[in-house]
Amino acid sequence: MGDGGTIHIDRQDPNKIIGCTQYGNLYKTTDGLAVNGGTYVRDARFYNNHPLFITEFSVNEADGNQVYFPTKTDIQRSLDFGDTFENIYNYNLSGGIKMTVSRELDPTVYVSGYNNTTFSYDLVIIENAATNPQATLSEGVFTSSEGIDKMTCDPMISNVIYATTFRGDILKIQVDNSGFTKESIRGNASDIVFNIVIKLPNKNTLVAGTNVGLLHSEDGGSTWVLSNQIPYCQVRDLKYREDDQHLFVFTYGRGVWATTVGTSICPPNYSGINKLIGLQNSNTSFMTDGTIESRQIINADVDYSSGTFIEFLDDFEVRFGKQFQALSDGCNNAQSN
User: Fold this and answer.
1) How far apart are CA 168 and CA 186, in angstroms?
2) Are residues 126 and 32 in the same domain?
3) Comparing C-alpha atoms, which of 300, 305, 289, 301 is closest to residue 337?
4) Of 30, 89, 147, 248, which has fewest CB within 10 angstroms of its CB?
5) Are 84 and 77 in contact (CB under 8 A)?
């Protein structure tokens, strides 16, 4: 792929692979598992109609035949694995186009790009993208310093996306009928540059690729823990395979690494400077092979699971009507209520 590219493998049929190299060139194959790596066919329909040298496009993980491709002026959709495309939205964005797609059969497409009239970044939300696309444009959502580097969609909650910015921050963006909210979830890692953040399916875990290595959080981004399972280096991309819970970590200059989520990146402890504090308003599980110290006020349904011991400090409290469970079996065996 020369200087780089974007590639997607169909979750339903891994023989189907589609990629984009420089200048908007698409390549695809339907025999990607063949010994020789498959036979790729070039599709040049978007050649020189690309917003970036390396164009990042999206494929719907719930239906690999759905391909969404940003050009200089619009969003193109394919429902047949790139055989045909049609325009579903025209925009007036001059560059920096980033996008992500929710994991639903009739998904929501999120697009961000630079508006050279307002000197800020807009957000386009296209609902029912596979059947009856309905687009909403919000101008000036992101300031020039909040330009989006990467966007990913929560695999279980289609109206939540995670975005990293050019300045290295992480934004959690939640969309509803009244508009949207955005908040920084950099937490205790305010001096670290974040490159990508993904939410793991059926888990409370956020995993982040940063300029110092692989981080993860079990509390929505308030507390980040650095993993020692891969080199301390720049992590540019992350992919998660649900079938065997493998997380693939793509670094800059140190190769590709893989780990099984729930074991090797289990945090060492929630104690000392990483102890649990504050009001816990969301249902979650804190699981570790190490220790847990907590002075939280539990205002939701929460599990603590530790491989060694759990210590409740003086201010710990469970509010009336909330379920709380503490187990001493660590990450490997813990079961949430």
Assistant:
1) 9
2) yes
3) 301
4) 248
5) no
